[in-house]
Amino acid sequence: ADKGDVLKVAYVQSIDQLKRTSTVAEISRKFSTNQNTFTVGASHAIDPLTLVKARLNNHGKLGALLQHQLKSASVLTLSGEFDTKSLEKKP
């Protein structure tokens, strides 16, 4: 969809394989706007069926996700994102 306009480089580090805990850092460059974005995130398995993820980028966007496997082919996902630099603005 971006037609080669974005270049991304990411590094993932597994911290605990039993609890499926890992961290990630990503740098992306959008050539059409000359905009760079640096994102850090983490994921952690609360139990074998539940996963929590969070991320924050240098533009102040904070995102979180909770994912729970209900059955072998069904997954419930709750996620949200907000701009930490616009806390005073009304929606």
Q: Helical segment tally?
A: 0
Largest sheet: 6 strands, antiparallel
- Unreliably modeled segments: none
| Cα-atom radius of gyration | 16 Å
Computed structural class: mainly beta
Strand order of the largest sheet: 1-2-3-4-5-6
Query: What share of the residues lie within helices?
Result: under 10%
Q: Summarize model confidence as the mean pLDDT.
A: 93
In sequence order, what are the helices and strands, one letter per element? EEEEEE
β-strand number: 6
Q: How much of the sequence is in beta strands?
A: over 45%
* Overall tally of domains: 1
Describe this structure in words.
With 91 residues, this protein is mainly β. The chain has strands at residues 6-16, 21-30, 35-47, 50-57, 61-71, 74-83. Pfam families: Porin_3.
Task: Record keyword descriptors for this entry.
91 residues, mainly beta, six-stranded antiparallel sheet, 6 strands, globular
Quick overview of this protein structure:
InterPro entries: Porin_dom_sf, Porin_Euk, Porin_Euk/Tom40. 0% of the residues lie in helices and 69% in strands. The chain has 91 residues and is an all-beta fold.
